[in-house]
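Data's thin. Show one?
=====
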Amino acid sequence: MAIRRMDNVLIVVEDLDAVIAFFVELGMELEGRGPVEGRWVERVIGVDDVRQEVAMLRTPDGHGKVELAMFHRPTAIRHEPRDAPANTLGIRRIMFAVDDVEDTVARLRRHGAELVGEVQRFEDIFLLCYVRGPEGIVVGLAEELN
């Protein structure tokens, strides 16, 4: 059997409100938010005594989703530098197609985002950049050029 789709990406955060605001400013829609706890989740994730709050956001087309989790119990563990460089092992960024890179960067800056490098043109195909948002989350932005 083949994969049918990619359902979502999970990001564990410390400040759920700030990260939700960042992704909503980017253009994602908050689908739902609420507590998650109990033996079933402990069995799924392999961690005992779990109490967390989870938020699910979706892209406007309804296909892409980002799940955010804030652990009340046990305390979340940081495993790498907060502002890890692009060559650090692991998931480094999530890429989004946007209508206007410059406008998107300007709006995200109001939520504390900073460019990782520079906005760059890839041939006559894309305008691209990486933005570091709350809690060091890196998103790539790609504007298709016609």
In short: The mean pLDDT is 93.
